[in-house]
Design a protein that fits this description.
By secondary structure, the chain is an alpha/beta fold. The chain contains ten helices and eleven strands.
């Protein structure tokens, strides 16, 4: 078994993003990411602080917009205003959202050219069509790690546990684009463990701590753990029972230190690409 080192991948991406950001600043453009935060969730607050710190290190500006007890109309209006701001190149809306508000509804108000986390339906539609678009960063991180690991995806059997539009569905589409044979599982999948054991590549994105045990994993399979579940001691647990699964897997991402660092860097890389697109369109 070998760990798939997300921190090493993030370091390589950081150098790439830093160089691109420096080039843009030399042209008078400061790549700027706007983050709308409509929640007091502690996990979200930690993640946003991480984005802001990393952005500063690579030469991007991160503009955090906290909304207090907002409704859907207020969130949509702020996303629309930021999308219209020529000094903002990337816009994201953090979850969880207030009760009764969905990301599908408010994501519509993010300009697709600035939709660096793939929340707009247009972005998802372009992904389905195999056309260029910004892909949800966590789903893109799954593919980034598999590619850097040298995992053969063409013809491989891939199983994705989770069907959200943030991770599960886009990850499945990205795997399909690489000619993998993809199965998407969810809470109503019968004999879930047996289905997962067929996978050459298993992506766990269900949001349930340590639900993937050794009975889910075929010996030698590559396991990508997307889960970030808070633990009582203030730590994080993945969706995979790492200690039990690691001896069986051929390769596995740890939590923390796997998908998370790459997700942040891909979000910032998308912001730089959005700034480059803005230059080309002006």
């Amino acid at each position: 078994m070998r760990d798939i080192d997300g921190r090493a991948a993030a370091k390589a991406l950081r150098e790439e993003v830093s160089a691109a950001a420096e080039r843009l600043r030399g042209e008078g453009v400061l790549p700027t990411l706007a983050v709308v935060v409509p929640t007091e969730d502690e996990g979200t607050a930690w993640y946003v602080r991480s984005i802001a710190r990393t952005a500063d290190k690579v030469g991007l500006r991160c503009k955090v917009e906290h909304l207090t007890d907002p409704g859907g109309d207020e969130i949509a209006a702020r996303l629309r205003e930021l999308s219209a701001d020529p000094e903002v190149h990337g816009v994201i809306c953090q979850t969880p959202l207030p009760e009764g508000v969905t990301l599908a509804e408010v994501g519509w108000y993010i300009d697709p050219f600035k939709d660096v986390d793939g929340a707009n339906q247009v972005s998802l539609g372009r992904l389905v069509q195999g056309r260029r678009s910004f892909v949800p960063a966590t789903a893109a991180a799954v593919l980034e790690l598999l590619e850097r690991e040298g995992t053969e995806l063409s013809g491989a059997r891939a199983v994705v546990v989770g069907r959200s539009t943030v991770v599960g569905k886009p990850a499945a589409l990205l795997l399909l684009a690489e000619s993998a044979t993809v199965t998407v599982c969810h809470s109503r999948t019968k004999e879930l463990a047996a289905v997962c054991r067929e996978a050459d590549v298993l992506v766990a994105a269900a949001g349930r701590a340590r639900m993937i045990g050794p009975e889910f994993v075929r010996p030698g399979a590559t396991v990508i753990d997307v889960g970030t579940n808070p633990t009582p001691d203030g730590g994080l647990a993945g969706d995979v029972d790492y200690e039990a699964v690691a001896p069986i897997a051929g390769a596995i991402t740890p939590v923390p230190g796997g998908v998370g660092p790459v997700t942040t860097m891909l979000l910032l890389r998308n912001t730089v690409e959005a700034a480059e697109l803005s230059q080309a369109r002006s």
